[in-house]
Specification:
- The chain has 188 residues and is mainly α.
- It has helices at residues 2-32, 35-51, 62-81, 102-117, 120-131, 136-143, 147-169, 174-187.
- Helix 2 (35-51) packs across helix 3 (62-81).
- The longest helix has 31 residues, at 2-32.
């Protein structure tokens, strides 16, 4: 009887793990900025999860546990290799979405440029909260920081994205100069 329960638990664990692979892969692609390294990172995560599955408690958040393993593995790999350079977002995103229309392509380009300028912490929290739809508590656990820090990072990341996107579409330096020329013309 006990053997059957263990087999069912293992089967459920493996099923959930397989179902989460696309989300793990998407998150890995965002934080590594390289599809090949992302695939290696997901494989490393799965290997560690399978080796440590006795540490996972049934009924707890498997997704959060796996994302934590993935993130910690990435940090360890970065430290080991002394890598801190990231490439831009569009280079590693082909095939994840439908081809955008012309306007959508420009919006994606603006988003990608702005996203690339964010700090690693801001990119990470945007992906986990925004794209993955994780709760603040889950993100805090994955990132190893207080929930208030996650909320602050998310708020700052959104504000910075807004500022960067608006700045790229409407450069702020050009607007005051144009206004000043108009005023000078009107006064003269």
């Amino acid at each position: 009887m006990e053997g059957q329960e263990t087999t069912r638990a293992d089967s459920a664990f493996h099923t959930q793990l397989v179902e989460l692979l696309p989300q793990l892969r998407a998150y890995a692609r965002v934080i590594t900025r390289d599809p090949d390294r992302a695939d290696d990172l997901v494989q490393q995560t799965v290997e560690r999860a399978l080796k440590s599955k006795d540490q996972f408690r049934d009924g707890t958040n498997l997704k959060g546990w796996l994302f934590t393993i993935l993130r910690n593995s990435h940090i360890s790999n970065m430290r080991r290799a002394n890598l801190v350079v990231f490439t831009s977002l569009p280079d590693h995103m082909p095939g994840l979405a439908e081809r955008p229309t012309q306007m959508g392509r420009m919006e994606l380009r603006d988003f990608a440029r702005a996203f690339d300028k964010l700090s690693e912490e801001h990119r990470e929290v945007l992906i986990l909260c925004g794209a993955e739809g994780m709760r603040y508590e889950e993100v805090a656990e994955i990132c190893g920081c207080p929930m208030g820090t996650v909320k602050s990072r998310l708020s700052r990341a959104r504000a910075e994205m807004r500022r960067l996107i608006e700045g790229e579409i409407y450069p702020r330096a050009a607007a005051p100069a144009a206004r000043q020329d108009c005023l000078t013309y009107q006064v003269a």
